[in-house]
Amino acid sequence: MAGYGGSRSPTPPGSSSRTLELMLGNSEQIEVDLDNLPLEDEEFEYLRGCVKESDVRARECTHIAQEYWRRGHLDKARALAEESIQKFKEERKDQELPPLYYLQANLSLSYARQAPKFVLPDDQVQQDKLSSKKTRSEYIAEATGYVNAASKAGGGIGGSTEILGYLTRGTLAFASRQGNETLQAFDGVLSKSPHNIVALLGKDPGNTAANLLLGLYHMNFSKEAGDDVPQEDRQQSFVQGSKLLTSVFKAATLTSVGAAAASAVAEVLQRQGHSDRSLKLAERAIQFSDTLAVLADGHIRAARACQDLGLTKIALRHYTWATESAPTKVLAWIGKAQMHLLHDEIPAAIHSLDTALAQKGDCVEANIMLASICSNPGPSYSSADAAADRRKARDIFDKLGRAVGASKNRALRYLGDDPDIHGDIAALWQNENLDRAARAYREASRIRVAQNPGEPVDPRLLNNLGVVTHLEGDLAQAQALYEDAITSAATATSDSDSMISTIMYNLARVYEEQGDSNKAREAYEKLLGKHPEYIDAKIGRARMLTGLSRHDEAHQWVKQALEAEPRDFNTRAFYTWFFYNCGRYKEGADFTSASLKQNPNDVYNLCAYGWFMHHAGREGRQRTDEAQAERMKTFTRAATSFSNALTHDPSCAVAAQGLAMIVAEDLLDSWAPGKPISDQKAKSNAREALAALTKIKESLNDGSVYINMGHCYFVRDDFERAIESYETASHRFYHGTNSTTLLYLCRSWYAKANKDKSFSSMKTALKYGESALHLQPQDKSILYNIAMIEQKALEMMVSVEDLSKRTSSDLEMAIEHAKHAQKLFNSLASDESKTLPYSKDLADQRRKYGEGLLRRAEDHLSRQYEYERENAAQVEAARKAREEEAERLRAIQEVELEKKRKEEEARRQATLERRELTRQLMESYRADSDDDEDRKARRKSSAKKAKVEDGLSGEEEAPPKKRRGPRRKKNVDEDGDEQMTADPSDGEEKPRQKKPRTKKRIVQDDDDGDEEQDNRKRRKTEYKSKEFLSDTDED
């Protein structure tokens, strides 16, 4: 109303409820989305029909029509209002009509603002002809009619409808230039609602309080309007609100209204970038405020201005004062949390955000900040606390992500378009779920490209996506991402060198894992050339050399890296791995113990020390009481170390696996020096360990888990499943290059061969032993095991009593292997090395035993040859007997087949002859039937001539008379003459007897059919023969 005569018509405020439900007459329910109203004519007509058929009230109808009005579709708003008025009139619901009449009146006034004041006749206008349009006075008259109709229909209706009526009358009176009526109408509104902005402004356009509220409305509209509102409307609303607030501030500087205006204008200046002027007005609002709400807003405005000016301590003080003045101000708590973050006060920031969420749990901004903080715990956090914070952050992001699609909250919907949020989500999942982390990084990359088309993607984002892809095992894709990241980092303006170095290192790792050692070495050398102290590059070179078994050179690189960063635990962890990989377990245990002195809570070193202690205890060879007691202490240290690791990280699968193996081997409960574990106890322990390892397998994707499961199956004598577990570890994780795993497979196949007495299983065991020797050619224990397998294979073949269960070829192969074993045992027994992984005496005993075994094997081979010759002769004789029998049966079968063929041919020929005879008989029968018909015709002709001679006129033939008497029958006497017989009685008519029909007979091929056919032929010949038929021409 205040903008009357302006270019922009005022529109009704938006509604908070954006969905309406209409119940149709057939109990069908439809939803009307006010944010997506139908604009096409066909869809709009459907909506009108639904409104007409539904059980709707005037409130819903005006709600939908106002939404069309707000969007500028006045014609559709008017059509919907007219349809609703007609509906309620038909239903005789007059109490629903006033709001619709008032809506129509306001629509007419809206049309009037855009209508011409008067229209020139067409004969007076050359160009701009408006004769088809209504004038402003006509629209005002139309609005007056609607107001009068509302008054007539509404009667004494009060409440909001009464206020709406007063406002409509006041607006109409103002448009008609009727001042007294306008004041009366607005006074009526203020009597019901003293703070009604429209009435206040209508009565006094200079009212500061009303203009303040109206300015705040326009400012809020510019920030909170829906996405469907054009940007120019937002800007226009912002400008109009700024003008209104400025005018109020100037008019009432030293009043409470001026304080509120000063706070509002401070926000305007803040949004325009004038932080110093905004701070001045905020301080003015604080000093002149007389309510806690205005005071808190002033402190928030001052804090934001100080934050922009870099005065973080003063900003924190203002935020604190705001939270004390109005504890429910969520924005103050969020700002306070931001200040705590700038001062690295993480717990205080989390407390502020928790307080904000306690006031408003669905605050998107507070939730996002809290999740981001929890996703990056500080270095002082323990592993358990950090894991709990990360779980909390994941839960918050998951909850927000589920609500993004359906929410009407703009901040929540814009959450899906923030690449940094997706980056935080990816960082949370990269150690838990690589697939979800990769999806989050890809989504962040997509958003970056969409927001900055034509610009290179952030190299850090590409690098992180490459790392996740690298961890997933897609090396080719990871290489492509790293190369793109390097290209993008080359164009970066800041910190490009450090980014390129990091990405180059990752690229070198990809080359290394792809087996391209030349490119990997070049990448590492390039890094070390630019950054000689690049620790990770030195470790990469050491790792490559270790893989090539160049341990001395690798050791030099590791020592250089450790000298540069002696307290870097990643470097120390790699040094531990180096000792383990080289088999230098004693040095590895000592170095790990030293690392634990620096950081007793390091989970990696605790697990490594537990492994070294467990291995040392298992490998102890001495059987003295002192050695066994020391061995028990070693196992206790291992269990303690694993237990401490689980204390600091309850989800550590490596420590859980170590304890499971200690349980499986019963190293702490019933173990004693020299006392072996019973089979029943060992199998029970293995079952318990398997239950734990099955759960560990779900969280720890490592070959050691499958190896330990194989150990448990081996203890339970389930060699097939043990082999399956070992092979899974070897193929999936070690790609057949881990000698220890190959030896476990060799042991399992060896045990299976002894159990099943299977030479093929023994050969498989030998194959795995030779593969392990190929990887570790200097390991003499593998040579000893190979010699044992070869000798045991011959021993097993010799012990076979049933000669049919072995072959001479297998026996020959076993003998050759045993001869090779003799050479190995001879070499091992004569080895003069100081430390050997086997007993020389046992090797010499095995050599001597092998000599006797070979002598016996020759006799067994001779007997095997003789057996196979005899068996072959028997097989050949049996084969010949089977062939002769088969030939005899084949000859008998051919004779029988020939006999059947001849019988079939004779039967077929007889059938053809019978068919030919039948054809001839049928032709003779048809010829006789034709002669009989000729005789019947001649008899009829003779009968007619006789009747003419007896007195009938020759001019005119008399009609035939019906026979009254019985039909005469022909009798054939014994001589064969036919005689006509009739009943000599009184001439009564007797019923006609039917002539029996001769049934057709099927021609048969058997002898009975031939005999019957011949008899029938004779009967027909006797009856039809002319020799026995008398002349029937006479009466």
Structure report:
With 1035 residues, the protein is mainly alpha-helical. It is 71% helix and 2% strand. The protein has 41 helices and four strands. The strands form two sheets. It has a two-stranded antiparallel ribbon. Strands 3-4 form a two-stranded antiparallel ribbon. A hairpin with a 5-residue loop joins strand 1 and strand 2. Helix 21 (434-451) packs antiparallel against helix 22 and helix 24 packs parallel to helix 26 (535-547). Residues 1-17, 670-674, 952-958, 961-995, 998-1007 and 1019-1035 have low confidence and may be disordered.
Key terms for this structure?
mainly alpha, two-stranded antiparallel sheet, disordered N terminus, disordered C terminus
Spatial gap, N to C terminus: 133 Å
**What global shape is seen?**
flat
Q: Which secondary-structure class do the elements indicate?
A: mainly alpha
Number of helices: 41
Major sheet strand order = 1-2
User: Biggest β-sheet: count, sense, barrel?
Assistant: 2 strands, antiparallel
Number of strands: 4
Instruction: Name the poorly predicted regions.
Output: 1-17, 670-674, 952-958, 961-995, 998-1007, 1019-1035
Report the average pLDDT across residues: 76
The share of residues in extended strands comes to under 5%
Radius of gyration from CA coordinates: 55 Å
Range of helix content: over 70%
